[in-house]
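Researcher: Please predict.
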Amino acid sequence: MKKTLIGALAIVLLATSCKVKKDEQENIIGKPDVKIENGRFTPEVMWGMGKMGEYAVSQDGKKIAYTVTYYDIEANKGNAEIYVMNADGSEVKQVTTTAKSEFNIVWLDENTLAFARGTDNGPQMFKIGIDGSGEKQVSEIAGGIEGFKLSNDNSKVIYTATVGKQKEPEIEKLYEGLPQATGRINEDLMYRHWDEWVDAIPHIYVADFDGNSVKNATDVLDGEPYECPMRPWGGLEQVAFSPDGKYIAYTCRKKTGIDYAKSTNSDIYLYTIADKSVKNLSEGIMGYDQNPVFSHDGKKIAWESMERDGYESDLIRLMVMDLTTGERTNMSENFDYYFTGISWSDDDKEILGVVYYRGTDQVFACNLATKEFRQITGGCHDIHSFELVNGKLYCDQVSMQYPSEIYVYDANGNKAEGTKISAINDDVLSQVRMGKVEEHWIKTHDGKDMLTWLIYPYNYDSTKTYPALLY
């Protein structure tokens, strides 16, 4: 009788297990089969395309890992998975297949990736082989993390997590006798960032990482009521390890209340891991200072800098500091364009960044010796971000005619067109009719050059007259 009961229970458990696994499989949102009639690009076609998210080039430059999100319109949600391909775009392999999105991909070695994924305890850090084997959760941070960044030797990790919620005034006095009512009382600034409430403060933590677990975490801003990264848009681009792993540069606006709400005066702070000392590197610069990046030799640090406090749209300048002498240099004093997403060249003689230039986002390089800027990429497209590996630029590139794909450029190029290496949406775009796009510069009444984009109908015939939409 006992054996029969145990056997019956085993069958029930096995059946339940199979059902759970089946249900999980059914809930996974993957690549849809998009069939297009008459080449029309409809909203349904657009949501059937994959959206490239992050990408990371392996240290040897031989492989690229990236995420793609596919969507389910009826479920009103999307799901991101990790893919790996050779650096020339060949041999694409899907690494993960889960119902929860993966993000924050980082190469641990030539065969292993680290990434983050949601769990019952919030997003946590995982690792996995690029063949999909050996997946393991390596962090167990209470409440989860927002993202992480590894030191050069992978021995330390910075992760972002929120500290306790702000104290909220009791609202029962407004809703006495109405237990189902909800609401909030805000008695001071800063209580909201655009579309999110300021209920919790993000802090960065530094911890030891042995490849299998995250241990001995220290709150870099322990006891401080300040945000790092800064809300609402800041991420781990606002934080950097020094090449030797002994220091952390981070972005922070150390203000509270109405002063915080009115000010754009953030600074770059240098934190020494050994003794927890902190130094303000951008003291006296009154606007946004953010996104620090160390040179490869660790002797200099660069960051994006605005000059004036309270002015969110000030010119984003390239600031460089010699960490030995403390001398700061504005490299953009003769350059009248934003310079963002910065990265040092392999020899530390140039700094590369994305510049919004004459209607498109392109990669430029600044020569540290001469303060001269040169344009590297060109074409009718935008480059959102890039990675520089072994003299090659791997770029997230998008245009009016195609969504984000990975392109590669020669870092020594001169306004060159790149080579497309990913093919996330080629199968869909091959079925879509697209008209050509041209840029036209028009003289205004006061002699300025004004850019307009002309998008032609599919199969445009110059002898015919077409209706036009003016935006």
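Model: The CA atoms of residues 10 and 438 lie 67 Å apart.
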